[in-house]
Amino acid sequence: MMNYIWVGLVAIAILAGVATGNIEGVQTALFGFAETAVDIVIGLVGVMVFWMGLMKVAEKAGVTEKIGLAIKPVMTKLFPDVPADHPAMSSMVMNLAANVIGLGNAATPFGLKAMKDLQSLNKTKDMATDAMVMFLAINTTSVTLIPTSVIALRASAGSKNPTEVLGAIIVATVISTATGIAAAILFGKTKTWNLQSMIDREREAGTLRLNEDYEEWKGAPAKKTVSVGPGPGR
């Protein structure tokens, strides 16, 4: 999708240049900013290496694990359908802990593993459970204490104090995470997006596909079960 957007923007710029008779200005800007982009990327290398190295030291020192233990009680409240001893819980905790301290590269594999683990608790093959939706919302809007990429970009662009935005970023990400959590909860309660309602619609349409890999977890909560069996009259 982003490729289409960028191609569209370039096409619009070229058409505007032709229409206004200033195609030379478009070419100058295009090649000028291409050179600027290369300079920024090269400048990022040193800063990114420093911050990623620092974050790796924090990971090896157990900082990520300690943050994970600190947020685990909150996780059990946000994901009541995921047993505390299920592998998905550990994967989600490690993903969010890595995001909090700016370890984006480390967070990605944990996030992919978390979704895979959550699918083992999903009775359907094609529908995201409430836990999956909540995890995606939190992961996308994650609270960030050390925004490594932003700091590196500001330093590469010549900022005298690249870390001065930390306070604003922390506040912004806290608000975005709270908004994401609220949206996931609210949409999950609506008739249109409620998981059970969606399953009922798929079942009525005859398009419901069950997850063959689903296994009842030994410590799964008894509350809030989702019925995927045949409906009345079937």
Task: Please provide a written account of the structure.
- By secondary structure, this protein is mainly α.
- The chain has one domain (2-17, 24-205).
- The chain is 68% helix and 0% strand.
- The protein contains nine helices and no strands.
- α1 (2-20) packs antiparallel against α2 (23-60) and α5 runs antiparallel to α6.
- The longest helix has 38 residues, at 23-60.
- It is globular, with a radius of gyration of 23 Å.
- The chain starts with a helix and ends in a 29-residue tail after the last helix.
Any low-confidence stretches, pLDDT <50, length ≥5? Answer: 219-223
| H/I helix tally | 9
Q: How many domain units?
A: 1
Summarize the helix and strand pattern as letters: HHHHHHHHH
Radius of gyration: 23 Å
Kindly report how far apart the N and C termini lie: 41 Å
Class derived from helix and strand content: mainly alpha
What is the overall shape?
globular
Determine the fraction of residues in helical runs and give it as a percent range: 55-70%
The description of the largest β-sheet is: none
Assembly state (oligomeric): single chain
Query: How many beta strands in the DSSP annotation?
Result: 0
Q: Kindly state the mean pLDDT as a whole number?
A: 80
Provide the β-strand percentage band. under 5%
